Amino acid sequence: MSSTDQMSFLQHLEELRWRVIRSAIAILVFASAAFVFKGIIFDQIILAPKKADFITYRAMCAVSQKVGMADGLCVTADFELQNISMSGQFTSHIVVSIIAGIILAFPYVFFQLWSFVRPGLKDKEQNTARGVVFFTSLLFLSGVAFGYFLIAPLSIQFLGGYKVSDQVDNIITLNSFITTITSTTLASGIVFQLPMVIYFLAKIGLVTPQSLKAYRKHALVGVLILAAIITPPDITSQILVTLPLVVLYEISIHIARIVVKKAKRNELKSYNS
pLDDT below 50 — which residues of the chain? Predict the structure, then answer.
C-alpha cells in the first residue's frame, strides 16, 4: 500500500491545493508570455481570420477552382474592426492572454489533475489508462486547431458579411470578433474530448458498443444540432463540421468495443485462474 493510500482527508486537500496552484502558475506563465507578445497573438493569430489571405480561405479558393466552381468558394471580404469602449482593447488583451494561457497550459493542467486522481486507482486501472494525458491533450489541441482553422473563419466570413439590406452596414466590434473566435475554438476543443469520455464511460460500464450503435441515429441528430449551433447557418459549414464529429462518434464506438473486449478477456482469465 502506497503512502498516498494512508493520506488523511486534509492531506488530500493539501495535495489538491498544490496541484491547483501549480496549474494556475502554468496558466499565468503562458498568459504572461501571450500578453508580452501581443503582436504575434493578435496580428498573426487572432486577427488573421478576418483577412482574405488567411490560409483557410486560400485553401477553399484552391479547391473551388480545382472542382470547377471558379471563384465560388473564394473569400474576398476583409472588414475593419472597431473598439467603442475606453478600456475595450486593454480588456480584450487580458482576456485573449488568459485564454491563450489556458490552451497552452492544458496538457500540464490535465497532467496535474490526472496525477491527483491516479493514486486512487487500482494498478490494473492505472495500466489501462496509460497515455490518457497524451491522448486527452492531443484531442483537445486538435479540436482547438479545427475550431480555429475551420469553424471560426467560416463563422466570421458568413456573419461578418451577412446583410439584411444594403442600407445597413456591418460595424464589427473588437469584443464581438474575439468572442466568436475564442468561443468556437474552445468549444471545438471540448467537443473533441468525446472519444476519451466514451472510453471512461465504457470502463465503468455505463455505455457499450451496442448502445452506441443503437443510438447512432439519435447521435447524428444531436451532431447536426450541435453543428448548427456552433457554425454559420449555411449548409456547407454545417457539413464541414458534422463530418469530423460523426467520425469522432464512430471512433468512440470502436474504443468502447476494445474496452469491452479487454474487460471480458480479463474476466475470463480471472475465472480460469
Answer: 1-4
